[in-house]
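Async update (no meeting this week)

Hi team, since we skipped the sync, here's where things stand on the single-chain job. The sequence we agreed to prioritize is pasted below, unchanged from the tracker. I ran it this morning and attached the output directly underneath so nobody has to dig for it. Comments welcome in thread, and please keep replies under the output.
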Amino acid sequence: MDDDGRRRPVERFADPVPEPEPATETSICPACDSPNSRTLFQGSDRLYHTTERVFQVVECSGCRLIRLSPFPSPVELRDYYPDDYWYVPEHDTVSRLEELYRRIVLSDHVRFVEAALDNCPEPAPVLDVGCGGGLFLGMLAERGRRVVGLDFSLQAASAAWRVNGVPAICGSLTQAPLPPGSCAGVTMFHVLEHLYDPGAYLEAAHRLLRPDGRLVIQVPNAGCWQMTLLGEHWSGIDIPRHLFNFRLRDLEVLLDACGFEIARTKFFSLRDNPAGLATSIAPSLDPMARRIRKIPEAPQAKLLKDLVYLGLVSASLPFTLLEAACRAGSTIMIEAARKA
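Output:
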């Protein structure tokens, strides 16, 4: 680490890069301290419309890490997260059908985590960081796993307890009130890209895991075909909430620096890859975006929009399976073990 605490990667791939743009005061790369970067594109909040401010997405000329520029301040960033940024089902028929759909597509994540936990037979808990409403942990608990959730939002942690019966803590992973070596698994689905210092969370996970425990992370894959084809219209960029956009090699370096080695990778998520492409194509049809933006909808109109969106998701499935088969899927899911 630097004297000021910023993380330095152990090494980076020396791929050819375009000529850098002139450095500015806000263009210092937080990973390698390079002052040079090139702008890939710019955009604003395309999904939730929380701001009209325009941000740049830049690629470091040194390590090639892709990031938002400039970073919003913590006060600003808080305003870019709507109050209901997690899913809690309502009680109407459409919501019950949506809950069933979410359970079906989340089973993909549950199977991946259960396979990772086969290496840790002791009944230690699984900690899900950024647990939201707790549906994923509730599904793990139904399979006999001990679980605990962690979320920075008090409302989300309360919803996890209330709706899915999941014990949940409100707070930061770096200050989680759990003893070292107490967890069989730590999971982070779409968390690292939101953090100013992803390495601090990975180091905290390393401390909390048992020696035979497993870390499971998932992030959008900035090396996917969708990023290449759609640019700023790709939903995985999610300006301005995603501060970093990782490729696999970025994660390899970061995990290695934090004491992990990769055991398994997967480039497809039934929940995220097809839906992400559908949202890229038609963000106004995304069910969560419509709910968060509080767009007035009659029940019949809501059902019709949901069915059209589901049709887009289904139509996106063949393409997302193909790009994942070529290791260019729009998400990266990793199982990592503590290095010996």
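Quick observations from my side:
The first helix runs from residue 74 to 79.
The mean pLDDT is 87.
Reply here if anything looks off.
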